[in-house]
Amino acid sequence: MQEWKASGQSGQKRIDIESRFRPEIEGLRTVAALLVAIYHIWFNRVSGGVDVFFVISGFLITTSIISTINRTGEFKFLPYVTKLLKRLLPSVLFILGVVLVLSTFLLPASILGKTIREVVASMFFYQNWQLAVSSTDYLDATQMKSPVEHFWALSIQWQFYMIWFVLFSFILWMMNKYQIRSIKAVLNGLLGFLFVTSLAYSIYLTEVNQPWAYFITPTRVWEFALGSLLCVNLSAIRIPKWVATIIGWIGLIGLLTTGVLFNVSQMFPGYIALWPMTCALMIVLSGTQETRFGLKRFLGSKPMVKLGGIAFGIYLWHWVLLEFYRYNVQQTPGVLVGTLIIVASIGLSYLMTEWIEKPIRTSTVNRTAFKKLGALLTVNVLLIGSLLGFAYMEEQELKQAVSKNKYPGALAIEQALSVPKQDPFPSYANVFNDLPLVHTDGSNQGLQKTEAKVGEYGKTKDYKATIALVGSSHSEQWFGALHEAIKGTDIRLLNLTRSGTRFSTGYEPDSLKGIWNQNVLNYLKDADVDLIISHVTAADASKDSIHQQMVDQMQFVKDEYGIDGLALRDNPRYDFNVLEALETTSIADTTKQMNAQPNQTDEAYWKQFEKTNQSLHKLDLTRYFHVKGEYRPVIGNVVIYRDNSHMTNTYAESFAPMFKKKLNEVLAEKLATDE
After folding, report:
1. pTM across the whole model
2. Residue 509 CB burial class (10 angstroms; 0-12, 13-18, ≥19)
3. Hey, is 414 helix, strand or coil?
4. Are residues 46 and 172 in the same domain?
5. CA 428 – CA 409 distance, rounded (Å)
6. Quick one: 257 and 357 in the same domain?
7. What are the tens digits of pLDDT across the range 234-288?
8. Please, which residues bridge with residue 564 across strands?
9. Most buried among 197, 270, 365, 665, using CB within 10 Å?
10. Same domain for 468 and 345
């Protein structure tokens, strides 16, 4: 990396900023950390405290960079990154190691793979992008949260630090090359440009794709830029003491109520995020004046400053403790337990700071510091390898025990089999990854694209009939059954599915879902397709019009394009994660929970549909989800659900004989034709 050296004598002050220690900012860090913890623990909401951390980080790192340039006339990459790594990595690697150890005993097996992926992402500071991908994956979004999910904020912070190195290297180069006198104007111009463009993009993307916008770096840069702008201009701002007193307390009240007034997790980081940002600015501005009743007296007090020094650790520890508690107790912490989590977070953060972080951060011999960091990293890698190895061996043992007789799935009901009791398959550690092929090979269309993506399977040459699976994930989940059913036949199978999008007339034409539906219709109009297959009911729908719109779309294809339709009834759905309940309670308790609520609101509609619609073929497979009238999470020793409504691919494949029978009936004439 190029190093830029300022012209002039070392120590010459090139950029005028106020660089004194600001105790009230340490106190604000304390407020932000405790706010995040309190909202997570007792309200299961997001507080906006992380956004305050971003503003503070922008302020402090800019102060540090400019002070370095003013003091030395240089801004070198290796000293800059070394200092950051010595500050961040000790706590990060230590806590991730603790998480890996606890995962051996306390982590639900179903999220082991997810947790390991996120641990690796957190170690290398790309966790925010890992979560961005997961949040926009329709199926992955239903999985339990990992104990390291909160590391996304730290990843963005690191990426911001790298962006700021490039930015200030460029500024220093301009200072040297052009001998700019008004460097503050240049700083304000560049930082203002980043602030405006990032905020504008954040507002746009939050409207278009909020889950993606929430985690990615470009939509968050404006928050850091705002802190940097405050740093550059704070020394020029003068406010009366009475104004400082008022805006300080108004800012604190506004910050404390952010999570109450706004649904942060679903509205940020768009323009609503200006609320906590403005509150943070007011608090920092209020600290420029010494007042009798000002907020600075509280935030700058010794306890608040002391806690501010370990706020980073409090933020990291609270979520780890909270999630492991939830995994094993299955309830929101009460006042006592929640308070204990906060106290434990403070205690662990203090011990970690004193015994792990500080010795490495303050070490004057970088080689010694990085040897210690290397040891922590090595331990984490060994722990990851051990966890993956044990999970792999367990799954292989279970796979070797699997047979059609012991694990018949839905066939246990179809053939009234007496099935010997076995450990359920897939193992809980692998249920979530038990996906249909079309979801893993890229055939299924994602949430943000509208192209009618087509996957081709089965007999792709010299076929006698073509069937097309169309619709949402509740159509996609049947792919395994169809794929098995057509093996050894002259049938070609096409997949035209899109996550979260029914094959329906019920979408606005200019919406992403509406455009995809039209693109599918355009494809089918001229395609060599004999039969389309799609679910035409939603078991949790609140009104019959949702079902009817799916029927209407399939009927349109039949009437206008002459393509037959096989209408599937939806499988039962639940308002809780069945897999999570299975793993954290028992099969018996999960069965009780499944039968304690309505799970098929489409029953009356389906019965009427069967009577009145004589044009479409129909298939109702819901009887294979209960035994003697009792809905079960495991049938034929196979786990049925991977979340609250989607089947495992293993259970879906056990329906192959039922689909084969239906396809032979519907396509009899086509399949009987001689070549």
Report:
1. 0.86
2. exposed
3. helix
4. yes
5. 16
6. yes
7. 988 899 999 999 999 999 999 999 988 988 878 889 899 999 999 999 999 998 8
8. 531
9. 270
10. no
